[in-house]
Sequence to fold (577 residues):
Amino acid sequence: MLTKGTVIKYGDNVDTDVIIPARYLNTSDEKELASHCMEDIDKTFVTRVKPGDIMVAGTNFGCGSSREHAPLAIKTSGIACVVAKSFARIFYRNAINIGLPIIECDTDAIDEGDTLEIDFDKGELKNLTKNTTSTFAPFPPFLQDIIKAGGLLKSIGGQK
Amino acid sequence: MGMTMTQKILAAHCGEKHVEAGQIIQANIDLVLGNDITTPVAINEFNKSGCSCVYDQNKVVFVMDHFTPNKDIKAAEQSKQIRDFAKDKGIVNCFDVGEMGVEHALLPERGMVICGDLVIGADSHTCTYGALGAFSTGVGSTDMAAGMATGKVWLKVPSAIKFNLTGQLNKNVYGKDVILHILGLIGVDGALYKSMEFAGDGVASLSISDRLCIANMAIECGAKNGIFPVDEKTLEYVRARSNREPVVYEADPDAVYERVIDIDLSTVKQTVAFPHLPENARTFDDIPDIPIDQVVIGSCTNGRLEDLVIAADILRGKKVAKGVRCIVIPATQKIYLDAMEMGLLRDFVEAGCAVSTPTCGPCLGGHMGVLAKGERCVATTNRNFVGRMGHPESEVYLASPAVAAASALAGKIAPAE
Ligand code: SF4
Fold:
């Protein structure tokens, strides 16, 4: 799997309350959730995000509540992949379970507006703007199976 | 190589003699929990999966606590969806308005979680039950749906940090101060993906209420779970509430920890976490005069009877400062009733507090105390992120019920004397 897109960059500890504020959790409608994505730290996100863009952040991305509405809002807004130095654990598993690709690697040298090309199978991230390449560890096989099946519930379908 | 307490519970729940940090396991679940925000998403996923029934009608719990009593039409529709699903699938434990409480106060109180259990909940503070020697962790709605369908969850076995507690807490210092102190030490990602295992002589002096409060905020350190050893206090607590036989797991003497942190409880001071991260812990040596607009005493962190007693002892016979709105929310119906019988509700109302039926309400900026732009609140809750309690430019200061009550009287952030 290969993806190429423009970077939208945030800092450390981006929490699920800013990804999708609780005041909008009275719905589970994906489009409505996406229309409020990131608005408490970045009002312009929803107007400037384009399908295929890549969200890049620092440490502990997605900390806070377990709301799956957060990765869902990001995915529905068009973001193709989230790259961060580290993810909060519930966000990490939610993203895998709903099929939002995420990558853990150093992001210091990536800036807003850079163009990235990511090869998930090879575990390779190319910054086309800066002409650099870095590598990341691919998911363990069990998690790859979930992703390949298209999410957790599809992957357990065969077991029951 | 020895196993930690967490690893032992996980091994027992996946039928292995031994598990190691980093290993991915499929574990059997004793209880699956969801609330009125996360359950609708889980139901949608469950229905898509083509499953027709849940794995065990007694082991799925729904608690309507976040936006209930329904704050608006959309919230009402979500609650209704859960109610209908529970009825359709024959789910025994669906706690609705009138019998519910904030989920993580309710489940221990009703004996639904005991020592040795493995619990997942589509709510990040599911880690609370580690106080009772259970493995419990927060997951997402899809995990909840899969758990309801199969009774299993995939887990990566965590490594652990050991917190070696010694000494005893001083007067006016509580479990909340301990966990805020720890957050100040290790930060909001200080225990990312790991277990926080509490140990040492100091544990015995902590009440179950303090332990529940500390384990509750393990997630604020990024942890997968927080867990306390089982002692006489734990057994007495669970035996009074459950007929099931508790299973006690202990860490092996040669268990491996990534790090051991010593904490002398007698050195912990009254602590407040400043906006906008729970790790911004400060003691009163370092807190200027900060006027406040609101105080919230409640939540799964500090809405238990012990917390209300602490607050009422400070507020009794006094008046909340003019211009401060003090909102008190007993976390469950039973706590509400006990507080009524003990005369605490009268103390609160006479002091000028608003007392509410159990709800998460203001904790997540839902209802019952949403903040306006620029307003400041001292809350006994667990998160002070940007916009957590309302306007993105409002501020939340996290504190114990003692500091919250003292602040309500002073009209500014103040220590309990
Ligand atoms: S009281 Fe707050 S932290 Fe606890 S379950 Fe409710 S919303 Fe979550």
